[in-house]
Design a protein that fits this description.
The protein has about 325 residues and is α/β, with parallel strands linked by helices. The protein has two domains: about 220 residues, Spore Coat Polysaccharide Biosynthesis Protein SpsA, Chain A, CATH 3.90.550.10; about 80 residues, no CATH class. About 45% of the residues lie in helices and about 20% in strands. The protein has 13 helices and ten strands. Strands 1, 2, 3, 4, 5, 6, 7, 8, 9 and 10 form a ten-stranded mixed β-sheet that branches. The termini are far apart.
């Protein structure tokens, strides 16, 4: 490939051969050409590697990286891809989603125009396994937060976005809709590969405390919602809720939020801790696993944990739960 790419497109894949051709073609057909495409496979058991090899043989912008053993986490793939990438901007294009051909042409200028913008992202159309549309991510968020915010373009201080929305839940709904400034990712320490489910949310929080977010209300990405997926299954063993507690703890220890925002973080964390307890002590009866999560939270985030537990006790005594 001649010249240095402006955008590195990372495609972490595991067993998505059904969706890979549409995913890859939606990247290669972008009407923005200064890209490299890094196709990664985490030891898929389906036909993914043959599909990836076909595109690598067909387009000189494509490179491949096959793991010798399954890493068990998409964020380990993120970490590997980020170390491999050469571009100024990073697009982590999840292997089961697909993009509109204008995705990069619309988002790159938002980052180019202002060095303070750490990430740009867009509204996404929600589709099922058969590409049938079912609303947009903006629809979900506007309804939940009683606003029209995500129907329009905006640029905002990341800290403000965190205090109002992103500290409560991951309102940047899917990584495929995001274009990152690579230098900003590196400045916040890169990807935390110890996460399996909430590593994207943690990255958005870290970046949001450093700079601006830019958003496009137009649907430039298509997010695939499966009837059964790993994220939903993770609620059974508490792993996703445990990682969310780690995200709340990160915000608490950042010392960058207002007192009111910190209080909201603690209240939300206490509510979710009670859900974690319910999932593991009532629904799936895994007391040892729950005790392990409690030990880890208490050991790694002692002050945060104690403040959360104080709010848990208050909620229980007031019979809110």
């Amino acid at each position: 490939m001649a010249g240095q790419p402006i955008v590195s497109v990372l495609v972490p894949n595991y067993n998505h051969s059904r969706y890979l051709p549409k995913r890859i073609e939606s990247i290669l057909r972008q009407n923005y050409s200064a890209i490299e495409v890094l196709l990664m496979d985490d030891c898929s058991t389906d036909d993914s590697r043959n599909i990836i090899q076909y595109y690598a043989n067909s387009d000189n912008r494509v490179q491949i990286l096959f793991n010798e053993s399954n890493s068990g986490s998409t964020f380990k793939q993120w970490e590997k891809g980020l170390a491999w990438a050469k571009g100024k901007y990073i697009w982590i294009a999840e292997s089961d989603d697909f993009a509109e051909i204008t995705f990069l042409a619309e988002l790159v200028p938002l980052l180019e125009a202002n060095d303070a913008v750490v990430l740009a992202y867009a509204n996404s159309r929600v589709v099922d396994e058969n590409d049938q549309a079912n609303g947009t991510t903006a629809d979900w968020k506007n309804e939940r937060y009683h606003t029209k915010r995500w129907s329009e373009n905006y640029t905002v201080e990341g800290k403000q976005e965190i205090e109002r929305y992103l500290s409560v839940g991951c309102t940047i709904n899917n990584a495929s809709a995001v274009l990152f400034r690579r230098s900003s990712m590196e400045e916040v320490g890169g990807v935390d590969a110890s996460f399996r489910y909430a590593g994207d949310w943690l990255m958005y929080l870290k970046l949001g405390l450093q700079g601006l977010f830019a958003y496009k209300g137009e649907c430039l990405s298509n997010y695939r919602e499966h009837s059964v997926n790993a994220s939903k299954n993770s609620l059974h063993n508490g792993s996703q809720r445990f990682e969310r507690q780690r995200c709340f703890a990160y915000l608490y220890y950042s010392k960058k939020l207002s007192a009111a925002a910190v209080e909201r973080v603690l209240v939300t964390a206490s509510e979710e801790f009670l859900f974690l307890a319910y999932d593991l002590l009532r629904r799936s009866w895994q007391p040892k696993l729950f005790a392990n999560y409690v030990r880890r939270l208490a050991s790694d985030n002692t002050q945060f944990f104690l403040r959360v537990q104080a709010r848990v006790a208050k909620a229980v005594l007031s019979k809110e739960y």
